[in-house]
């Protein structure tokens, strides 16, 4: 299966694999760090052609065949799960299980048993023995999603597994060996979580052997048209239709900020596809995408560049520059204020004014 196909089917594929089990078999020395780096053009196609995402593709290619633990960060919808899956699919153990666990979705009382398994009768309701995800993923990849949501006391246990490669089922005293490649992900900033006391510092360093930070979609606007077309092609192929975008629609999409990133783009394309007859026009886009264009007036943003038409007011240029800088700093006001050479007080005053004027929603 090519990676392009993999992307189209990744949601259902992940669901199917969520609770996949495998025979508990320990494979030794199956990973070598000195394998040649695989050149795979389909990976490039999947991720887009921007410099930002090409660098990510290169990191995936290099890290996939090694056993290094990977920590993927990025805003919601940037493709963290897709990236984890791509790392697995480009590894030598791609035919072994890929198990995804959402650490934020399991109740704190069950998470230990979900991770490490339990013995029959080890707690009320444990009517039979259960294999945890470390056993299920044996020989393959364990994807720990939303890892910063894990209760602190369990973070200690996870750290121990990462360090000793052994774990114990709840209610057992028998140590078992774990041979899994760990890929973790979070849409939070790990350093901020450490500062807030919700992520153990030692665990962060242990997970962040190989960090991959996924760019927000607005930081790689040149990929928007290609991704949108990719989603439309998939819908056309599934329904045997041949709908297309009007040129104006692509421009609108390229100028929108996409706070929900690729997921939001995919949903917008799907909705527009359903709403349209043959050609997808502005009318088929949600209001917020169209409104963003109206707001941008005579200042256009593309990637990290603002183009200003002569005849634009200084106030409008300033407003757009502030918004673009905030986007660039992923919303971190202190960084944005530094770059802009404004005091925090001035930046806050400007933002309050823009809110009153209806530029912020
Ligand atoms: N490079 C890509 N090419 C095509 N589709 C993609 C790509 N990356 C992500 N997607 C699609 O975008 C959606 C979101 O991706 P994914 O679930 O991997 O994001 P996420 O970062 O894990 O989001 P969250 O933080 O909300 O869990 C999915 O439907 C996925 O199929
Ligand atoms: Mg995810």
Task: Please describe what this structure looks like.
The chain is of the alpha/beta class and 361 residues long. The chain folds into 3 domains: 3-215, P-loop containing nucleotide triphosphate hydrolases (Rossmann fold); 218-296, Helicase, Ruva Protein, domain 3, CATH 1.10.8.60; 298-361, Arc Repressor Mutant, subunit A. It is built from 16 helices and 11 strands. The chain has helices at residues 3-17, 41-47, 51-63, 80-89, 108-116, 133-136, 152-164, 190-196, 201-207, 224-239, 247-255, 261-275, 287-296, 314-328, 333-340, 344-356, and strands at 70-73, 98-102, 141-145, 166-168, 175-177, 181-186, 210-213, 244-245, 279-280, 299-302, 305-308. The protein has a 5-stranded parallel sheet with strand order 2-3-6-1-7. The chain has a two-stranded antiparallel ribbon with strand order 4-5. It has a two-stranded parallel ribbon with strand order 8-9. A hairpin with a 6-residue loop joins β4 (166-168) and β5 (175-177). α14 (314-328) packs across α15 (333-340). The relative contact order is 0.10. The model is unreliable at 1-42 (pLDDT under 50). Bound molecules: adenosine-5'-triphosphate and magnesium ion. Magnesium ion binds at residues 80-81, 145. Adenosine-5'-triphosphate binds at residues 7, 10-11, 46-47, 74, 76-82, 187, 262-263, 266.
